[in-house]
Design brief:
Annexin V, domain 1, 16 helices, elongated, single chain, about 270 residues
Length: about 270
């Protein structure tokens, strides 16, 4: 669920433009509004990263294509970040959105994932593939086997949700718990992220937000990516998952780790939390 509140009736664009113009002319112009000017000049960073606002103004497909492109350029310095962005874009968004991204970033992702009808699930396939996943993960400890890759990369989201539910019923543990317990290495982490992005993206993105603010400093690229890209999709669910898992709120952690206009802009996208 989105956290973006749209006024009713929606004000004319000309009114918004005039409000921005007046704010920028005033002596008490906030650093957040000042950041708008810097989009054109590219000068300075007034108390935060104007890149968050720049990303927000983009079409969603253009934004995700830019995020993937930048992560690929940084691959040698931070391969895990690159992989995380690729998984998020290819698994946590709708097929139509992914097609738009593919058009902008040629053949980044090689297959179209059918979204699936929530009412159409092949239960025979569910039983078979839940067993195959358990065999690969629990007994062989090979999450990178051909069967695992085939199942995760070709089945619809509704089919996968049913398969992972059957896995939990038959084997007494969530598939992501078994991945943590029985497997290790980069592919295991990739598989866990893919499972979450495909079936419970709020779990993945809550974890990414927490990771971005742990320790000294803030991973602004990571924090910006999640809040800007999920504000119109499922930020309310991410906030709730974050509250339950970490016993605090996204708002509180953002306030504690960011400042000035950057903080204000992120909080506007996160939305009000009681």
């Amino acid at each position: 669920m989105s956290t973006i509140a749209v006024p009713s009736p929606v004000p004319p664009a000309s009114d918004d433009a005039e409000s921005i113009r007046k704010a920028l002319q005033g002596n008490c112009c906030s650093s957040c509004m000042h950041s708008c000017c810097l989009m054109e000049s590219g000068q300075g960073r007034p108390g935060g990263d104007p890149r968050a606002m720049i990303l927000w103004t983009m079409d969603p497909a253009e934004r995700d294509a830019n995020l993937v492109h930048e992560s690929l350029k940084k691959k040698q310095r931070d391969e895990s970040h690159c992989i995380s962005v690729l998984i998020e874009v290819s698994c946590a968004f709708t097929p139509d959105h992914l097609i738009d991204v593919r058009r902008m970033l040629v053949r980044l992702v090689s297959s179209y994932r059918y979204e699936g009808d929530d009412e159409f699930v092949d239960m025979d396939v569910v039983r078979l593939e839940a067993s195959q996943l358990a065999e690969a993960i629990r007994k062989k400890k090979q999450p990178n086997g051909d069967e695992v890759i085939r199942i995760v990369t070709t089945r619809s989201k509704s089919q996968l949700r049913a398969t992972f539910q059957r896995y939990r019923e038959d084997h007494g543990a969530d598939i992501t718990e078994d991945i943590d317990s029985h497997c290790s290495g980069q592919f295991a982490r990739m598989l866990k992220n893919a499972v979450w992005c495909l079936t419970s993206p709020e779990k993945h993105f809550a974890e990414v937000i927490k990771h971005s603010i742990l320790g000294l400093g803030t991973y602004e690229d990571m924090l910006t990516r999640v809040i800007v890209s999920r504000a119109e999709i499922d930020m309310k669910m991410i906030r709730e998952e974050y509250r339950v898992r970490y016993k605090t709120t996204v708002t509180r952690d953002v306030v504690g780790d960011t400042s000035f206009g950057y903080k204000g802009f992120l909080l506007a996208l996160v939305g009000r939390e009681d």
